[in-house]
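I would like you to help me understand the sequence and structure tokens below and explain how sequence relates to structure.
___
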Amino acid sequence: MANKGPAYGMSRDVQSKIEKKYDDELEDRLVEWIVAQCGSSVGRPDRGRLGFQVWLKNGIVLSRLVNSLYPDGSKPVKIPDSPPTMVFKQMEQIAQFLKAAEDYGVVKTDIFQTVDLFEAKDMAAVQRTLVALGSLAVTKNDGNYHGDPNWFMKKAQEHKREFTESQLKEGKNVIGLQMGSNKGASQAGMSYGRPRQIIS
């Protein structure tokens, strides 16, 4: 915001550590994905953390991105005809993106706060959210993802197993290896501590 002065001391150190987490190579990959997913009409940002922040700041690019992951006819975020210019409208647009990303399956711990993007407080958190969204889109493999599938890691998927009653009963008769063995075990020869000293 306009009234925020320079940071000194510990808050400056903390902010500098947060800024070091930002990954320029990841930024390039995310820009490529967003352009492939939404089309060239979204444009491209200036290189660097601040250019990336300015590109996403009004929430329109993010809203188009999350809408492109859904089939036609079921778009979760309403996009205004002209980009919002008022601060609270821009922040509202970002909040709608965050809600849609969570509904899509991004876990709360991977979702950035609105101020992280709007005030460029933690652009690395914004990158984490976009990576989580991309990973989910690749994993779902529903035909709505565009771009190189190798840009994101696939999330682990559930591999449910079904066992019959007889298989479950057989399993009760097996002693697991973690139970160990008591064959030949005794406490012979074991001593704990020093023997008691009797002083007269």
